[in-house]
Amino acid sequence: PPGEGPDRLAMSLGGAAMVPATFKFVPEFVGRRDDWRYRLVGLMAVSQTGEGSYKEMRKHLSNVLGLVLPLLADDHPRVRWAAVNCVGQMCSDFGPGLQTAHHAAIVPALAARIDPEVESCARVRAHAAAAVINFCEHAEVKLLEPYLQILLARLAGLMQETGCTRAREQAVTTVASIALSVGSSFAPFYAAFVPFLKGLLSQEAMSPVPAGEKRLRGKALECISLIGVAVGRERFRADAVETMELLVRSQHEPLEPDDPQIPFVHLACGRICRTLGPEFVPYLPAVLPSLLRSAAIQTELDPNTAEGLDEKEWDDYETREVGDHTVGVKTSALEEKRAACDMLVTYLNELQGAYFPYLETTAKTLVPLLQFSLHEDIRAAASEAMPALCRCAAAHVRETGGDPAIVQQALDYLYPAVKTALVGEQDQVVQGHMARALGQMVEACRPALLSPALLEETAAALKQLLEEAGERVENLLESEEDDEADDGEGGGGGVEEDDEKIQEDEEAMEVEEETIEQIAYSIGKLILTHGDAFLAHADTLLPWFLDRLSPSSPPELQRLSMAMIDDVVEYAGAAGSRYVASLLPLMMTHSLSRDLELRQAALYGIGLCAEHGGASFRPYVSEAVIRLETAMQEPDARGEDKESATDNAAASLGKLALHHSEALSESDRQRVWGAWLDYLPLKADVGEAILVHKTLCRLVEANHAEVLGASNGNLPRILNILAQAIETDLIDEEGTQQVRRIVEQARTGLGDAGFDALVVGLPPDLLERLRRLLATPATAAEAAPQQLRAAA
User: Model's pTM, two decimal places?
Assistant: First the structure.
């Protein structure tokens, strides 16, 4: 295409060659006062060169801006437009560093170009507003806040100008972008924009919208919704309701299929739905018909009409290869279809059971899109919708007391469709979406179950995917080895070519790892929901993961495989004991791995084996204690890098002591429980911390002898541990109430003087936490606690 030559050269040659060549002539060109075309060409060369010359040009940004910014005030409007375009492009190419270093020069200059008293050309004013979006996309909120007043004042003026719809549309779009960028900092300007924007909708609600104003109306609706997202539900709720009422009243008849308002209406309604939640349900009859129509829109070019298209109309189409055929595809229709699928998922997730009346129609629209060959994003969105449809059915039954057979019917219809699509899917990213959807569906539909035949088919499909992924991973590893050998021999291409190949391989490996992770996720959920019925099939899948625990496997695959065998033990319940002998040795082998994520998964798995392994775990108790204590006692065990893994070692040690105390001698029990208490509280792994701290509370309330110690001697340090946990994310509300009961019982049993003596060693801030806890009224649902043993 015309004008892309400098960009292509920069991408091919790199900045080291391109920047010196370009700036041999640019200063001269932009300084030519006798012919505006030279200045225009110089500016276009700068804007076209930046992306491909990033590393080199960023060293000279001050000098480049010194050439560009003065031309914002050039005599010729085309030069001013090109200067604005150049600034906007540089904001995209060199952000956020450009914004941080040069905001004081750029923002006032762009704001001036939006001002009609400074800039006479409406096209330049509109383009300056667009450049503000480029600036905001890569700028921190604190950097933008000082400029909000001037920018929004200029945009408010542009928004209200008459005679140039394009400029008004751009102003509305830029205000929406600013709101999205600054979030709650937009609140002081809310009243300056939302009433005006609602006014646009209100005027048009009284009569059909003129063709030239439809896009402006759509953008106004989009802007209202994005401002609402920025300021939050509390501020936006009333206007959200009024906006939806205006929208419904304005739709005198359904929107035409090619109405430019459609994508704006769909996206805005999705955002408003997130704000209103169940209050949005009354508007579904108004918004769903066009949304479902968009999801089902025809995207392929009808051969019967192809001959009648002129050259301009052909620009709306691109060709795609589908099997042995080449088809023409309307790109705008594809995007409309994808956005509609996304919005249907939004409605399903936000409204849950309230969406049920539309469930069947929506499912029949989306299921065929699981195999929509023309766009992978549409297949991915349809895959995401399947679990949402299941959750909708389950929520309806739960909330209304409906027939549970509804959930089984939903699972029986949706699950085979996803499984069938998964078998034929060639895109690895979409495979990942579909594989995860299988697990999400069976979890959402519990206790509904799949048939034995479908479980077998699922296992076969997942096994095939794992084997194919394994082959691709092996090929990537071999390619990496070949590249390293070429480098060692001095062969291969240039540096940039090698870097590009390395990046492509890394991205391909990430896709494979993500796909495998989603397959593992669903295997775990199938074990969780179907137990023994799927475990027999899981046994055919498990060897694939065990093979990836070898040191030669990529680290990420080792981590995924360890997480997979953790899930097998955890989700198999009592049946998990049969896996201890084969899986626990692998966990212990990796329990001190230098790969800390792998170490964490292995240490967590030891605890799961202790919890679920029963008698199968007992032969390993002594070695497991040694492994766990070694991990907890390393010099840097609570360092920033290792602490999450060490938290899991402590949690697992507690599980071992709790479930296998009879396998420990009395002295070992005291030592193990003492080591556990010495480590608490957990601080890095928040999920484990919540569970462990509640376990500690339960043991105290149960008067656990080793935990409380002789004569309750451990109670002061237990209160210290629990005081550190409360008022943080290290304990939940249930755990906080447990702590309250313990503290109240201690004070009641000991009296005020005895309790004061018990906590005398607490730091003042922790003591104050306990006092605040006791001053807060207990919940009515609190169960009466057991009394602590009387302190000696």
Answer: 0.82
